[in-house]
Design brief:
D-Maltodextrin-Binding Protein, domain 2, 44% helix, five-stranded mixed β-sheet, alpha/beta, 337 residues, 16 helices, globular
Length: 337
């Protein structure tokens, strides 16, 4: 069956802007298979699915095998174990590469307010200070844990001494909170939807935006060391495919968000998906060039790396200036000028 590409894109709701961004034809070239691990949360996979809808992966000759994971830690374990080639994640981008495991090469966004701290007031918790000596469920080493550490620190509490962190996969952490087994949970959206729906008495104390930019949490992409060392051209292709999808998301969010809800987030109400979008900070490809060049991105990455040192995850980290290669992005984007 022959499908007219323009008609297909209109049916999918991309509209005229996306049509302008979409390649008119796919390059005649051999396709390269690549295994991509990701988290199914808008802050991580928004650009991935827009690139898929727009055909930019195929334009760059990439045959993507998409593999969904639950946490960034699991993603990096798969990367190290050679089960995937590249990954997109949140705060964990500042963890494993800082230990020499994986190379960061592309930034998606800032998780501005994606992490949230929820409590049960009926269990005696109404302020952050009330958490002293209490149990808090979360997933160690992730965006939520980074945020929780900063939130506790703002109230004079040490996350390694003054509270008991119950380390669980996020779905299990939220289930524990909903069941009342713990008085607090540090989560990332969209897990807040279940909390709001099932525990109407729950209270959100604070989200990560309260600590921006001093505790900005960066999300982005990393590659296997071997892939980075031997095939930087492949990583440039990923960046080239990502750029138009990212700019569509940023510049035409009124088209992009409904498209993502219709095709990839059918179980998330459109208002909640908009809330997820507003909980992150995204920039155009050109705006990222400035943030790469002036050292802002490296500074933000180092902030999260330093968190991992503070909580004892590792010592003597590799600085972001060495584990994050910004040259590939700058060559692809700024090199066009």
């Amino acid at each position: 069956m022959t499908i007219n590409r323009r008609s297909f894109l209109k049916q999918m709701g991309l509209g005229s802007t996306a049509l302008a961004l979409t390649p008119s034809r796919v390059r005649a070239q051999a396709m390269t298979k690549i295994r991509l691990g990701y988290l199914h949360t808008l802050a991580v996979d928004g650009q991935i699915w827009l690139a898929d809808s727009m055909g930019t992966w195929k334009k760059e000759g990439l045959d993507i095998e998409f593999r969904e994971f639950t946490t960034g830690i699991e993603l990096f374990q798969a990367l190290i174990g050679n089960s995937i080639d590249v990954l997109a994640t949140g705060a964990v981008i500042s963890n494993f590469p800082a230990r020499g495991q994986g190379k960061a090469f592309l930034i998606n966004n800032i998780e501005w307010a994606t992490a949230q701290l929820w409590v049960h007031p009926q269990q005696g918790v109404n302020t952050i200070q009330d958490l002293k000596g209490k149990k808090i469920s979360t997933t160690r080493g992730t965006t939520a844990h980074v945020f929780l550490h900063r939130a506790l620190k703002s109230a004079g509490l040490d996350s390694t001494k003054d509270v008991e962190i119950v380390n669980q996969r996020m779905s299990e952490a939220v289930t524990s909170f909903i069941a009342g087994a713990v008085p607090a949970v540090a989560l990332w959206v969209p897990f807040n939807i279940a909390v709001k729906g099932k525990v109407p008495t729950a209270k959100m104390l604070v989200d990560a935006s309260a600590y921006y930019p001093e505790a900005a949490i960066i999300g982005g992409w990393a590659a296997r060391n071997e892939l980075y060392d031997t095939n930087k051209e492949l990583l440039k292709k990923i960046i080239r495919a990502w750029v138009p999808a990212n700019d569509f998301l940023v510049k035409k969010s009124e088209e992009a968000i409904p498209l993502l809800q219709k095709t990839r987030y059918q179980n998330v109400p459109i208002d909640d998906l908009w809330a997820q979008y507003r909980a992150q900070k995204v920039f155009t490809a050109e705006e990222w060039v400035t943030l790469y060049r002036d050292g802002t991105v490296a500074k933000w990455l180092n902030q999260v790396t330093n968190f991992n040192v503070e909580v004892g995850a590792f010592t003597n980290p590799v600085p972001a200036e060495k584990y994050f290669d910004q040259s590939l992005y700058l060559e692809v984007v700024a090199g066009k000028k």
